[in-house]
Structures are given as C-alpha cells and as structure tokens.
Amino acid sequence: MADKYGPIFCFLAKKCYTTSDKVFATRPRSLAIKLMGYDHGSFVFAPYGPYWCDVRKLAMVELLSNRQLEMHKHSFMGNGQWASNKDGPALAEMKERFGNLSLNVVVRAISGKPYFGTHACGDEPKRGKKAFDDFMILVGLFMVSDAIPFLGWLDTVKGFTARMKRVAKEEHRQNRLSANDNGAEQDFIHAMLSVIDDGQFSGRDPETIIKGTCSNLI
C-alpha cells in the first residue's frame, strides 16, 4: 500500500499505530453501547485506560490462556458429542447446529453450564440467542444522536431507543442467570468474583463488570 499511496502512507500508519496508538484504541461513544453495553462497562467498547487493561488481562489469563483451554477441553469434547448425536441419522441444518455448538462451548467455559442440550433450562437458550442476535443488529445501526446529540429524540420516535432498552433488559436477565448458578463447575465467572471480591474494580461495581465482560465474550 505504501508503493501505491506513497511515503505519506507509511508516515500516517506510524502516527496512528505507533506514536498515537492509545488515542485510536478508544472506540467512539454511541447510544447503543451506552444502553446495551452497561454504560461502556463492556471492555470491548470501553475507552482505553486502567479499566480496559485490567479486564482484558483478566479475560486473557482466566479464560483464553493455554492452561484454561486445557482445563475446559473435556467440555469441548462433550459438546462435540452432543452435537453429533443429538438427532441420530437425519437431515440437519448445519449452520444452526454449528452456531449452537459454538455458543454452548463459550457459555459453558464462562458460566460452567451448557446452554443447549439435556441440561438446558426451558426456552432460556432461544431467548438468550435472540437477545444477542438483536444486540448485533442494533449495535450496527446508525443513530442520529451519535452524530448530532440534540436530535436524539428522533431515535426515540423511530423506536430504536426502546428496542435497545428491551434488549439490554433481556441481556441483563440472561447474564444474571449465568452468574447466579452456584452449582456450576469452576469457571470464568468464579475467577472474576475471586479477583473483584473487594467490591470495586477500576471504579465499577462487580456485577456490571461480570455482566459486561460475559456479554462481550459470548
């Protein structure tokens, strides 16, 4: 690309990704993330700073490290067997099957319990999956208030604000169900609780940190 656009490209790349990388590490604030991301408590959308660094480090060490992946290997294999033996020899929608398998692996690693399968609770999996699907749709929409704050009432008139609040409420409910499962095996939620059991973690309450981080990872 430097050959195509000239030396200025190298200069700008160095400026953005080396000299001023911390400035560009912060995502712009938006209405969707404020309402559905626990007021920017989700570390993926949080501004760069001590909170972002602390939660990112926690996720990398307690969930994504080689040691943790080895500990959860049995659940990965169990979920693979569940997916292959679910309906026996019959036609299956593979896109949905692989989607449910991926979600099951992630949720079990985070909360210690499966989301689909024989141990799932009623219609909770479908409700949770719909909430996260709606989140992905709404977070990508253009909100007038993000560009022109004083015209935020237009988002309310269009129903986007109310829809975001409904999704945020459902996400809140799903994450509380995961966090309150005391019978689950040792998991990422327990690891977070052990780190932030002093009541505050970079200026935010533990419940917000847990819910925001879990929704990000899922």
Automatic annotation (TrEMBL):
<dbReference type="InterPro" id="IPR050651">
    <property type="entry name" value="Plant_Cytochrome_P450_Monoox"/>
</dbReference>
<keyword id="KW-0560">Oxidoreductase</keyword>
<keyword id="KW-0812">Transmembrane</keyword>
<dbReference type="GO" id="GO:0046246">
    <property type="term" value="P:terpene biosynthetic process"/>
</dbReference>
<dbReference type="GO" id="GO:0004497">
    <property type="term" value="F:monooxygenase activity"/>
</dbReference>
<keyword id="KW-1133">Transmembrane helix</keyword>
<keyword id="KW-0408">Iron</keyword>
<keyword id="KW-0472">Membrane</keyword>
<keyword id="KW-0349">Heme</keyword>
<dbReference type="GO" id="GO:0020037">
    <property type="term" value="F:heme binding"/>
</dbReference>
<feature type="transmembrane region" description="Helical">
    <location>
        <begin position="135"/>
        <end position="154"/>
    </location>
</feature>
<dbReference type="InterPro" id="IPR036396">
    <property type="entry name" value="Cyt_P450_sf"/>
</dbReference>
<dbReference type="GO" id="GO:0005506">
    <property type="term" value="F:iron ion binding"/>
</dbReference>
<protein>
    <submittedName>
        <fullName>Uncharacterized protein</fullName>
    </submittedName>
</protein>
<dbReference type="GO" id="GO:0016705">
    <property type="term" value="F:oxidoreductase activity, acting on paired donors, with incorporation or reduction of molecular oxygen"/>
</dbReference>
<keyword id="KW-0503">Monooxygenase</keyword>
<keyword id="KW-0479">Metal-binding</keyword>
